């Protein structure tokens, strides 16, 4: 039957595997799986408990990163990871595991809210419609999810527990001695008993309720504070650092982001910095992701140093305390709280003109520079710029090691979010400080001896000299000298001196900042927080959860000019006065009292910080998760000392957002005894991206990829030549291909195979619709090896396979098993194809046991056709839980291997020998070979090197 004439072929072969046949088979089996509960994973107890024999199997927990249900639906690039985890989960079921594999929806977020602002339609309506559409698209792919466990973060039954977790974090503090979180009530008890001194020296009883709340706020793991934030007027909300692009704009919407000071909720993730770093060592994650987290956390060891100024001190953190004698000026972040306090009314006598930036007074100069810095992102401020900017504050501080008065500047390259927001500038040995010193005509003093010939007169240098392996010079005072010491010894000596003088100490600093947790939006989880008449925050008791979102008339924050930094947020929730102002009895013994609700909402990251736990016990209304169930699926075990999900697949773009936040929440819940696993995800795998060609016209605008004509290597649209480039796939680029389109033309199994066969899973690859047909033909050949296309009868025979077929079969089994375990799906498909081609070329009916094994091999990859053929082969149970074939070692090893025999380094013979041949036997066979004897031509043998079974190297005398 000709594959190039489908119409004729289908008439002559009514039982051929076609797109129509695939559609019928796939829909029927999907219905069967749903009705049968084929993919239900039993728990050891609870309402999802199942067969004890299944629970007794080794478990495997497989997860995809939470998808956001976009209104645009899926294109073929989206399911890559979902198909991969499905293949792996199916393989694990067939190798004797109780597999938990399900999928929920991360459904809060800006896209639905922005649509609501534009249309007035409630974001829940559009979100639920998008979820239903996505469920339909994913179902068509035959994904084996346990649908009983699915949920969306917008479900009140779900975000009740998101709010509950926030309450646990709010009511906790981090005990630095115990290195863990503890209930805040324990800290209060220590203050009450006097076991722990109250900051400020007063007794706990002497403090007012507001003063106590302020003290506890300095310890709580969730706290509100007035702090510099990333304010985005265009979105009407503040953003976390991770949500701001390198050019200072919002990741979503591309609006300008400004620095502003607002009262916001924060998570004290910095308390866990050391543990977040240390525990990475035990995780099976890509090294690139670990490195990103380590760099983001940014641990550095150094010293805290106090520089006296007007009876107080400016504290700096430095990793080069050995260069203190070289500090000739200081720089504060423009937002530093001490700037205004130490800024004098007039310029000191002798102030350089270049220091004042042309302003009449220090206050005027500082105000102007602060406004300029507020328009830049942290990334922009830290970038190496050609022109260094800054302004003198008019104040001088004292260098504590030599008593020298040094000027204090503000400059945007110093950030309030790192260290103390102040630096000591050692221009001779820091490139940025050197450039700044040159620009502002400041002294440059060498204190680290250069290893080149530039000398120690730094005023003649072209750039800073930076070294961690050199001698310290010009560094001596009345009672301390570092001269002649190496960097390490100098650091130790000066750190000890600082501590003895009470003006500093050795310390550790982190780049990581506390997590900004407030959003001025509607479509997010409401905070379970109310404020009393004194402005003290109280958490709601569990009996009042979930606190559901109220209805509002207007979903938008107050409209702002996107380019105006001088605005402040007004949230949609704040306009619902009946919801905001309430009378409640919080069960604290004070009875009903008036309160005001928190009107910010949580960020969209909140729901995805813990969803791996809800999958375990999704219908539990009494607990976050049953401890026995959590221990079964995620508890620590051999090889996984921190527990967690066995395989977590998703994009690398979440390295320092979702992944870091989820790790933090897990550690808090672990410390408080709610879960047994301090890490959420043991093994992380980042899939690549499916790309697509983008075609652009002469204006640079994308044109529909489906309308492109290719002629002689050039591309045309409506007769006009266009440019082709490889990029993302998406609706805006007019190159999106929907899963439905491929399923209709070839079937879901073909789509699954093609996406897995395109290349290694962790590598990006270009989509080519024309290449899909290759996997379609594989399935057609597989079908023909089992089913007669004319009659529909099974053609396999009850006969023993010959040895050649046995070897082909067991090599395929061995290879496919290893490849599926290692997520090498493309090579697994290649091995299945090779076996199937062998059977096709044999030209005879396929032996029944070989056909069964072939169907089992392809079942994880193409489950619908595998189910159909499994039934046709006489089975009445599903292929999903069948045992995966095991290779017979006798047939995996080649009968013979080729051994190369060299004489004087040149190949003289090739021998077919047993793979198990010994070195001695191989040497005898090689020396007896006619070609080898001729090559030696009677010469003696000095040495024979044998590497059985593949090499013999003979060195003549």
Your description of this structure?
With 957 residues, this protein is an alpha+beta fold. Among the domains are: 164-290 and 515-597, no CATH class; 299-510, Valyl/Leucyl/Isoleucyl-tRNA synthetase, editing domain (Isoleucyl-tRNA Synthetase, domain 2, Alpha-Beta Complex), CATH 3.90.740; 894-956, Ubiquitin-like (UB roll). Helices cover 33% and strands 17% of the residues. The protein is built from 31 helices and 31 strands. Strands 22, 23, 24, 25, 26 and 27 form a six-stranded mixed beta sheet that branches. The chain has a four-stranded parallel beta sheet with strand order 2-1-20-21, sandwiched between helices. It has a four-stranded antiparallel beta sheet with strand order 6-5-7-15. A hairpin with a 2-residue loop joins strand 8 and strand 9. Helix 2 (19-36) crosses helix 22, helix 23 packs across helix 24 and helix 25 (803-821) packs parallel to helix 27. It is globular. Mean pLDDT is 93; it is low at 1-7.
Keywords:
957 residues; alpha+beta; Isoleucyl-tRNA Synthetase, domain 2; Ubiquitin-like (UB roll); six-stranded mixed beta sheet; four-stranded parallel beta sheet; 31 helices; 33% helix; 17% strand; globular; disordered N terminus
Number of DSSP strands?
Answer: 31
Rounded to the nearest angstrom, the distance between the terminal CA atoms is: 65 Å
Number of helices: 31
Beta fraction: 15-25%
Main sheet specs: 6 strands, mixed
CATH architecture label name of one domain:
Alpha-Beta Complex
**What would you call the shape?**
globular
By CATH, the topology of one domain is Isoleucyl-tRNA Synthetase, domain 2
Gyration radius (Cα, Å) is 35 Å
The CATH superfamily of one domain appears as: Valyl/Leucyl/Isoleucyl-tRNA synthetase, editing domain
**Class from helix and strand fractions:** alpha+beta
> Ranges with pLDDT <50 over ≥5 residues?
1-7
